[in-house]
Amino acid sequence: MVKERKIVCRCEDLTEEEIIHAIEEGYDNLESLKRYTGATTGACQGKGCLMHIIRILSQKTGKSPEEIGVTTQRPPVNPVPLYVLSEGGESE
Amino acid sequence: MRVAIIGAGVMGLSTAYYLAKLGAEVTVFEQKYLLYGASGRNSGGITPMIDKKELIPFALKSLELYDKLPAEVDFNFLFRKDGYVKVAASDSDAEKLKRDVRVQNELGVKSRIIEPSEVKELVPDLNTDSIVLASYCSESGVIFPWPVVWGLAKGCRENGVEIKDQTAVDEIVVEGGVKGVRAGGEFYKADIVVNAAGAWSNKVSEKAGVKLENKILKEEICVTESIKPYLDPYLYDITYGVYLSQSARGEIVGGITGREVEEISTDSTLEFAARYAKRATQLIPKLKGLAMLRQWAGVYDEGKDGLPVVGFTEVDGFVQANGLGKHTGMIVAPALGRELAKLIVKGDNPNLKEFSPRRF
User: Fold this and answer.
1) Could you tell me how many CB contacts below 8 A there are between chain A and chain B?
2) Which residues pair with B252 in a beta bridge?
3) Residues of chain B with pLDDT under 50
4) Do residue A88 and residue B270 have CB atoms under 8 angstroms apart?
5) Number of separate domains in chain A
6) Which of B48, B111, B277, B332 could be B137's S-S partner, Cβ–Cβ 3.0 to 4.6 Å?
7) The pTM is what?
8) Separation between Cα atoms, residue B335 and residue A50, nearest integer Å
């Protein structure tokens, strides 16, 4: 059994099976699937898993990757420590 | 009775859920997907320590409902009741906390004033020099807003409610009174149309020809990387408007209380990130090394006098259910939705008198 576990999101420890289960539960658009499973919201912010998620969603729903789209990309691009942020950005 | 509800946030869904239980035939229209609006973008702070006395009975009732609802709809809301601390960083805000606690106690809230040293017992590594005084309520905490919305949606569907996502309401058909709505090219007959559209409520109200002048607020939030369970209570600094708590997933979720805006926007700014990081690390210096992973923004609304706008309007059958306000939407919505369902079915509910749209 162990060898059949296909990890698609390392940060949130999600398998392909779990993604498929969520889609079957009705979380069958990217934004809902992201929120329900936590995929793309971990430390990598989707860099490692987004394409896998889109592929699975495409295979399960028959929609093209173009139709599925991508999640909203939110700043920062890479994690930034709070002590760095606290030094900047004063514009008022 | 057929009811069309516009907005599948926590207010629209609570109203739908309790209406369905009272036997109404309900359809909920959501312009985007569930969680798109403020109900999916907030930090989940839950407390009856509110500085508007009119809302306190609803907060207390909602706390009871949050205990019951997860079992009723068979969905875990991930409500962690580890308390809520409001801190003041100025003498005048310390006086405000004292006044607020007196009012809260009179209305049955078990909140109390605590000294910085006691806050430190609740919030390890707090810099006690960064605050003057605090108030605390143990029957409070952090809820995960996403399962609240999913759970309510599940409960709605199981009670016969139809939720139509990606379906914006293009027209509210009014002839004398409300006749229905047009959405996605189809007409839906309805005796009652409920406007639970949050920040979009003013625009929705216009479609019914009813003037609504809720304030629109934009609020920015961020999360850090996950760390082991560290911070039990929800912490809100009323002087700086900065709040933070630890989510069920270990992230430190924090933001700054919303500011009034003219136009709906969910852009993120570096200015927010810097202001937040500065105050958060003054409060808890140990957070300095923690990295911010993601920031976002949400929009919500508040009645122009600061209170929600809930009830019948001058257009027969058109009902407002919006303006829930800063830091209060998640905690008042279940009870407010339940009372609104009663109002709609019975035609009257004295409990909602203070929120009537006709007060303006």
Assistant:
1) 87
2) B246
3) none
4) yes
5) 1
6) B111
7) 0.96
8) 38
Cβ within 8 Å, pair B288-A76: no
Interface check for A26 against chain B (CB to CB < 8 A): the answer is no
Contacts of B288 in chain A (CB under 8 A): 81-83, 86
In this structure, is residue A90 part of a structural domain? no
What is chain B's length? 360
Tokens of A82: 């709070």
CB contact under 8 A, B271 and A89: yes
| Enclosing domain of residue A37 | 7-85
Please name the residue that has the structure tokens 């199981």. B158
- Predicted local confidence at residue B234, as pLDDT: 98
B227 touching chain A per CB within 8 A: no
Answer whether residue A92 is part of any domain: no
User: Which domain CATH number covers A67?
Assistant: 1.10.10.1100
What is this model's ipTM?
Answer: 0.90
The structure tokens 């949606």 sit at B153
Instruction: Count Cβ neighbours within 10 Å for each residue of B252-280 and write b for 16 or more, e otherwise.
Output: bbbbbbbeeeeeeebebebebbbbbbbbb
- Within a domain: A75: yes
Q: Residue A50 — pLDDT band, cuts 50, 70, 90?
A: very high
From the list B26, B246, B216, B4, the residue with the least C-alpha distance to B142 is B246
Q: Is B326 exposed, middle or buried (0-12, 13-18, 19+ CB in 10 A)?
A: middle
Does residue A64 form part of some domain?
yes
